[in-house]
Structure formats: C-alpha cells, structure tokens
C-alpha cells in the first residue's frame, strides 16, 4: 500500500474571481485527506471511502466501458462521491502510461465535503501522488499540482482554477493568478473556522457567478473588484497587518455575498464572528453553505461560534507548511 496525504485550505481572498483570471490567496491548513493505493492484478477500481455523506461506502467497478458501480445509491449521489477519485486515477494512468492499471483505493479524510475547505483538491492531490508512486513515478509538487488541476477542471465542467490544487500540493500560503502559481510568505495567522454542517455544490455555484457576470456589467465589475481586494491583501500580508487583513476579508465577503454565493447560515456565522470582535470574517471556497474563516487571536470568536445556532463546529486552524505528505 502506498499512502499520501494532502491538506485542505481556506481562502484568505479571491475565490470565484480566480476562475476568471483574478489573483487569489488560499492558505493550506492542518486538516488532511489521506489516500492509500494498492495496485490490483486486474484493471478494476475499488474505492473505499470512510468519510462521505453516503455514510462510508465501498464500490468496485471498471473493466467494461459502461459498467456501473455495484452499490445501492442514486446515480447522482454516486457520481458526486466518486468522480474526483475516478478522474484522479485517469491522471495516474496517463502520467505513467499504464492505461489498464487497476487499484484498490482507500480514502480517510478529516475535511468536510463541499464545505469550502478544499476536500476535493486534497483527495485528488493525495490520490495522484499515491497512485503514481505505487507505479514507481514520483511527481514534483508543481507537476502534481498541474495534474490535480486537470482533474478538478474536468470534473467541474471546465470551470476551475489552479488555486486549491496548487495550495494543497505545495502547502503554506500561495498566490494564484491564471497559470502563475507561487508560494508566498505569510505570518502565523489566528485563523478560526466555523462550519454549519452543510455543503454547497461547487460546480453549480461557479456556474451561477459565470451567468451573473455575463448578464450584468456590474457583476463583472464586482469580480474585478475582488481582484483589487486581493492585491491590497497581499500588501497587508507582507506587512503582517492583521487588522487590515480583517477589513479586506470583510469587504471580500460582502462582494461574494453580492454575487449570490453566501447563505443564511454563512451570514449568521460571519456576523457572530464580527460581533465577537474578530478582525474580519468571510465565507471560504465556493460558498452556498459550509465554512467561514475569521481572524481572531483571542478565544472570543471560537467561543461565540460554538454557541451560535446553525454553527455545528468551531475550531482554530493551523497553517499547514507541508503540502503533500508521503507516508508510506
Ligand atoms: N473523503 C472523501 N472521499 C471520497 N471523495 C471525496 C472525499 N472528500 C471529498 N471528496 C470528493 O470531493 C467532492 C467535494 O468537493 P467540492 O464540491 O469541490 O467541495 P470542497 O472541495 O469545498 O470540499 C465530493 O463530492 C467527492 O467527490
Ligand atoms: C469557487 C472556487 O474559486 C473555489 C472552490 O473551492 P472549494 O472547492 O469550495 O473548496 C472554484 C475554483 O477556484 O476552482
Ligand atoms: Mg473543491
């Protein structure tokens, strides 16, 4: 068994707008997806996932072109659950040239699904890394990130940025603008996460913003304004100015909300954090439900969130310096 893990992330700034070429700054955090891969002696794929909303499941499929996985769940649930893993294994086959290789894949993850913490990117990065290593090829983090991006791009119908996958593969704080991806220095930020227990559908939310942007010039301007916030945020990060970072995060949240990707529970958590004295708070990732990220060096925000109806979990997140981790 070859095992790799990769971290999730929060967006300090720039989600959604990054899909249209604006810069974004995500930051890897110490919550991880761990993927174990073992080569099979046939061309099938057997996926065992512990932490899915399907309540944990095992599927075995492959061999025939249209062979459907043998599992008692609706097609759409199953698609949602397996498409990132499937597509990651396709990348492994392509990189290694072993088109017919089959695998037993085991996924364990502490990253809530569809909650804006980048579970898809972490699973894909860890799966491609473990899969290629199982066949004797070790990819550099940048190549790994590129392969993982192609997976997200494919699954999200051509609508994905390189931000999540680059951040998960390399760790730390990163800046992504189009295909220019780089690591940047970040101070030790007092990150607090609030999770509403729900999820948003990344593909649908991205499509919604795309439509608005095509329909209204002011929506296109809003996307550009997010880019301006990110550029200001980079300066604040370089200066270690947490108060300014917070103000800019608040502004970024307002614009995401205007683009229709917030939700009642995300708003409730954002305001609970602000009322508790956080320097700033915003949704992270695609939105629609899931997580917010706040900046607060004191205990106040975490405590307030833990008593906020609609907030299921509140915790402090540490920056993950290390991206992909090769465990076995
Ligand atoms: N533990 C897991 N096991 C298998 N697949 C997972 C796991 N975590 C995430 N995924 C895949 O990632 C998808 C969620 O990704 P996405 O909607 O982009 O949300 P996010 O990246 O914000 O968590 C899931 O539907 C599933 O396909
Ligand atoms: C909305 C988007 O900018 C981020 C999505 O993040 P997540 O999958 O919700 O963690 C899409 C993307 O960059 O591919
Ligand atoms: Mg994702």
From TrEMBL:
The active site is at 164 (proton acceptor). It comes from Natrialba taiwanensis DSM 12281. Homodimer. NCBIfam families: mevalon_kin. Residues 84-172 form the GHMP kinase N-terminal domain. One of its GO terms (molecular function) is mevalonate kinase activity. Belongs to the GHMP kinase family. Mevalonate kinase subfamily. Pathway: Isoprenoid biosynthesis; isopentenyl diphosphate biosynthesis via mevalonate pathway; isopentenyl diphosphate from (R)-mevalonate: step 1/3. GO terms for biological process: galactose metabolic process; isopentenyl diphosphate biosynthetic process, mevalonate pathway. Its cofactor is Mg(2+). PROSITE patterns: GHMP_KINASES_ATP. Keywords: ATP-binding, Cytoplasm, Isoprene biosynthesis, Kinase, Lipid biosynthesis, Lipid metabolism, Magnesium, Nucleotide-binding, Transferase. Catalyzes the phosphorylation of (R)-mevalonate (MVA) to (R)-mevalonate 5-phosphate (MVAP). Functions in the mevalonate (MVA) pathway leading to isopentenyl diphosphate (IPP), a key precursor for the biosynthesis of isoprenoid compounds such as archaeal membrane lipids. Residues 235-301 form the GHMP kinase C-terminal domain. Coiled coil: none annotated. ATP binds at residues 112-122. The keyword ATP-binding applies. This is Mevalonate kinase. It is found in: Cytoplasm. InterPro entries: Galactokinase (IPR000705), GHMP_kinase_C_dom (IPR013750), GHMP_kinase_C_sf (IPR036554), GHMP_kinase_N_dom (IPR006204), GHMP_knse_ATP-bd_CS (IPR006203), Mev_gal_kin (IPR006205), Mevalonate/galactokinase (IPR006206), Mevalonate_kinase_arc (IPR022937). Its EC number is 2.7.1.36. It catalyses: (R)-mevalonate + ATP = (R)-5-phosphomevalonate + ADP + H(+). It comes from the Archaea. One of its GO terms (cellular component) is cytosol.
């Amino acid at each position: 068994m070859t095992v790799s893990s990769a971290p999730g992330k929060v967006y300090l700034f720039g989600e959604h707008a990054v899909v249209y070429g604006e810069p974004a700054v995500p930051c890897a955090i110490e919550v991880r997806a761990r993927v174990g891969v073992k080569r099979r002696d046939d061309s099938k794929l057997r996926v065992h996932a512990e932490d899915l909303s399907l309540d944990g499941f095992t599927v075995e499929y492959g061999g025939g072109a249209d062979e459907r996985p043998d599992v008692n769940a609706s097609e759409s649930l199953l698609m949602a659950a397996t498409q990132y893993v499937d597509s990651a294994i396709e990348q492994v086959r392509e990189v290694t040239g072993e088109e017919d290789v089959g695998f037993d894949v085991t996924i364990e993850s502490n990253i809530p699904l569809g909650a804006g913490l980048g579970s898809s990117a972490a699973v894909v990065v860890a799966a491609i890394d473990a899969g290629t290593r199982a066949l004797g090829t070790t990819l550099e983090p940048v190549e790994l990130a590129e392969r993982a991006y192609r997976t997200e791009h494919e699954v999200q119908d051509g609508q994905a940025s390189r931000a999540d996958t680059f951040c998960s593969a390399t760790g730390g704080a990163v800046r992504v603008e189009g295909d220019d991806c780089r690591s940047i220095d970040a101070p030790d930020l007092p990150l607090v996460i609030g999770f509403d227990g729900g999820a948003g559908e990344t593909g649908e939310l991205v499509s919604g913003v795309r439509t608005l942007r095509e329909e209204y010039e002011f929506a296109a301007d809003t996307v550009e304004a997010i880019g301006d916030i990110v550029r200001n945020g980079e300066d604040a990060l370089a200066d270690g100015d947490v108060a300014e970072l917070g103000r800019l995060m608040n502004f970024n949240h307002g614009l995401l909300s205007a683009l229709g990707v917030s939700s009642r529970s995300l708003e409730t958590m954002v305001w609970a954090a602000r009322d508790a004295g956080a320097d700033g708070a915003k949704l992270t990732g695609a939105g629609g439900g899931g997580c917010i990220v706040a900046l607060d060096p004191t205990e106040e925000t975490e405590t307030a969130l833990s008593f906020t109806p609609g907030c299921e979990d509140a915790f402090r997140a540490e920056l993950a310096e290390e991206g992909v981790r090769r465990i076995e």
